[in-house]
Amino acid sequence: MGVQRFTKRFAGVPDSIAEARHWLAGLFPPGSGDAGPPPESRSNAVLLLSEVATNAVRYTASGGCDGAFTVRVHLSPATLRVQVEDGGSATSTPRRMAAGPGDERGRGLVLVDAIADLWGPLVDPPGMFFDLSWAPVTRNGAGRGAGPGACVRRNTGPGRP
What we know:
The chain is of the alpha+beta class. The chain has three helices and six strands. The chain has helices spanning 15-27, 39-59, 108-115, and strands at 4-11, 68-75, 79-85, 118-122, 127-133, 153-154. Strands 1-2-3-5-4-6 form a six-stranded antiparallel sheet, with helices on one face.
């Protein structure tokens, strides 16, 4: 099986985040067996897409008037890459924040960092990507989405290869 690719554009409004989650979940419905990622990776992808799409709508030009974001999914035999292309931000770059117990924000990229095997910013077009792997894979570099100087995180914590 080669790489399967799926793409969909969403309006840059909060309701589109749920629409994007449902779209991604529908690509690999439960019981589709070998046609997609294992169940845990499917659930994790939907959760992380929600966090990254929320950031696109909340912190980039995608959430502005007539804004939009695009989700691209690349499925290979052992890895799922999800890219959220957004309108970019002239004032900030994605970073993990230290959220207090009562804070309503600041946990999205912490979740991405804890769950994704690899994640980071997209350079051109702007946005974020994350990879989920379910079999040992060999990687050369950070991948297509990351450019020079990009802060790419590889999760190698407990329980990770």
